């Protein structure tokens, strides 16, 4: 059996968009029950309560989760408020403990997905389970690793599968904690339209700003839901405080989400995907231009220190020759490329001029 053969009928038991919500980390029984109580009180469609029991951290000596005791708190959430429950597993020990606690949905985190040995260990521990297993994209932008993780699970006869798009790590600082790189996620969705995919706006944004926008954008291109971090007192959260929202804000956000119709023979969906990709590329272009201008500042400082003129005719000649070459390679208009490069070059001169005058 291949991934394309899976029916994944598990998604049909939930109203769409499927929302999985709860704190980044389980901290105490009181925190878990209070958060669950307030999510329930919003009357928002949140059938699944999530909480991190084990937390992979970048550096040692940080809070790495409460461990197995937190699974008992998840049980109480299920018993008292009727939620299904979900948590992340990162090794066979986690799997064994979560299955014994009857956690309904397990997910493999981005740092685990990147390691085939880890995924294989988890898959073998889960062999034959009928639990729903979701796989986050790997931290690095590698579609093959993401697909490979799901294939390893299927290889162990695990058939209730789904994916979570949580964005990709980047060395450069941007407005996102993890860049969406929509192209990779949409390539996944295009290859496996039968595998439900959820958005993780909390990890993409890294803060409370933009959560609703990213979630709606995902629904616009056919995602089936979202996994969102919510805490009854986000500012005091033990992990990822800045990206968690209160249950009340969560409820309002969910009420404003719109599930896109798949009518008009898919025209709207396809148009939405193209527009999302254009927005993603535009963002990358702006970020690259910003990096380029920071380098121009450094060049300006060097020119000032060494009394070198800002405008270098030979440099402009190189740029025009490069524009002609790229036009030939890409099939774009040479005139258009020259205009773009000229505008960039003029802005670079302006940046360097400011260095000469003011610094």
From TrEMBL:
Residues 265-356 form the Chorismate mutase domain. PROSITE patterns: CHORISMATE_MUT_2 (PS51168). It is an enzyme of class 5 (isomerase). One of its GO terms (biological process) is chorismate metabolic process. InterPro entries: Aldolase_TIM, Chorismate_II_sf, Class-I_DAHP_synthase, CM_dom_sf, CM_II_prokaryot, DAHP1/KDSA. The keyword Transferase applies. The keyword Transferase applies. One of its GO terms (molecular function) is transferase activity. Keywords: Transferase. Its EC number is 5.4.99.5. PANTHER family: PHOSPHO-2-DEHYDRO-3-DEOXYHEPTONATE ALDOLASE, PROTEIN AROA(G). This is chorismate mutase. The gene is aroA_1.
